[in-house]
Design goal:
By secondary structure, the chain is an all-alpha fold. The chain has helices at about 5-10, 15-25, 30-55, 60-75, 80-110, 115-145, 150-170, 180-190, 195-225, 230-255, 260-285, 290-320, 325-340, 355-375. The protein folds into 2 domains: about 5-190, Growth Hormone, Chain: A, CATH 1.20.1250; about 195-375, Growth Hormone, Chain: A (Up-down Bundle), CATH 1.20.1250.20. The radius of gyration is 20 Å and the shape is globular.
Length: about 375
């Protein structure tokens, strides 16, 4: 439930954007800044909360994050102006980042090797389903009530998770005396950037996430503009691809028991490169049917889910500092690459898949190269 916080925070209120614009008499572009501010909060929160949890333990920062999330969700609901709403969305996103980064950090504290990969397969499957459930829940709430009720719902969700975490989430990380300095923990996080193999492994996962964020930005145009899907048909296509990610993430947890993770993740990159190369080919020779495009997107996104599942265990083994700092850096790099690739998806107009194909192929090739150098040392144990 904690790992679904990020997608829920950004997606659940999307059906209410027109109502929010109307209520605040705000331009839609200004209203969309509330989503941008939430993304910024999610990114910055991971950088701060990750190393803080290395210094103070996971439980305290988790409970504080959930409390702040509940409070800021309530303040979003009662915001008098769009500017105040955008302001509180930033802090809501920052608090929501606590659930994302700490869920991964607690997993890294409690599990190692195959067990960590298997547990991460569960988190990845939840993280892929949440973007579907978020807008559905938001649509239902807005159908029977107002957009403010979405944030009252998030307030209640935050309080419920606060209660559950207080009752049933024990401390998973006891910092040593030398770790109990917050500034030192933050400094240690940035010193991790000097860990070449760790940085290369993070880049390998982030490159393919850039391709995935490109897909998220381009998918409405591919399905609704190029292939004339209705919003309902687009939702079903989007859901089918997301289900593939969830299934692939669970499958990765099973396969990790039988294959070395280095070999498994390399196979996944190669299949992702095959799928993205076919997308680029189809971009230059668009088929009359959407089926080939849909199948290629399913394969690419499924491989992305497996790569993130298996790759997280590799990243955690290559880190030198705390799991919280490593998890925070990984999360920020994902958002950074997503923010860099998404704006270029429409550069050739809304009838072209060429930018998406280039982005996906480039992400796979760069990811494979970064992975090769991250795992080149002979002493790496899979």
């Amino acid at each position: 439930m904690l790992t679904a916080f990020g997608p829920l925070c950004t997606d659940i209120y999307l059906p209410g954007l027109p109502s929010i614009s109307a209520d605040f008499a705000a331009d839609p572009a200004i209203t969309q800044l509330s989503m941008t501010s939430s993304f910024l909060g999610l990114a910055l929160g991971q950088v701060i909360i990750g190393p803080v949890s290395d210094a103070l333990g996971r439980r305290g920062p988790l409970l504080v994050s959930l409390l702040v999330f509940a409070i800021t969700s309530y303040l979003c609901a009662i915001s008098p102006t769009i500017e105040v709403f955008i302001f509180w969305r930033f802090f809501q996103g920052m608090a929501g980042a606590g659930g994302v980064v700490l869920a991964r950090s607690i997993a890294a504290d409690k599990f190692k090797g195959y067990a960590l990969t298997q547990f991460m397969s569960l988190l990845m499957s939840i993280n892929s389903i949440a973007p579907i459930l978020g807008p559905i829940i938001g649509s239902f709430i807005i159908t029977v009530a107002t957009w403010q009720m979405v944030f009252y719902f998030l307030t209640c969700l935050g309080l419920i998770l606060l209660l559950l975490s207080a009752l049933d989430v024990p401390e998973s990380h006891q910092p040593s005396p030398e770790q109990k300095q917050v500034l030192a923990a933050i400094t240690s996080m940035f010193s991790e950037l000097g860990n070449r193999r760790f940085v290369l492994a993070v880049l390998a996962l982030s490159f393919i996430m850039g391709g995935f964020f490109g897909y998220l930005a381009a998918s409405p145009f591919i399905f609704q503009v190029i292939y004339s899907f209705s919003p309902l048909q687009y939702s079903l296509a989007f859901a089918s691809i997301t289900v593939c990610i969830a299934i692939a993430s669970i499958l990765a947890g099973r396969l990790a028991k039988r294959m070395k993770d280095q070999r498994l993740i390399t196979f996944c990159y190669r299949f992702a490169l095959l799928a993205s190369s076919l997308i680029l080919l189809l971009a230059f020779c668009p088929p009359a049917s959407v089926l080939p495009v849909l199948l290629c997107l399913m394969l690419f996104c499924a491989m992305m889910g497996m790569i993130q599942t298996v790759g997280f265990g590799i990243v955690m083994r290559l880190k030198r500092g705390g799991a919280g700092a490593a998890s925070g850096l990984l999360g920020v790099m994902h958002f950074l690459f997503g923010s860099l690739t998404s704006p270029f998806m429409g550069i050739m107009g809304d009838h072209s898949m060429v930018p998406l194909g280039i982005c996906m192929v480039g992400g796979c090739i760069c990811g494979l190269i970064a992975l090769k150098f991250a795992l080149e040392n002979k002493d790496h144990k899979s």
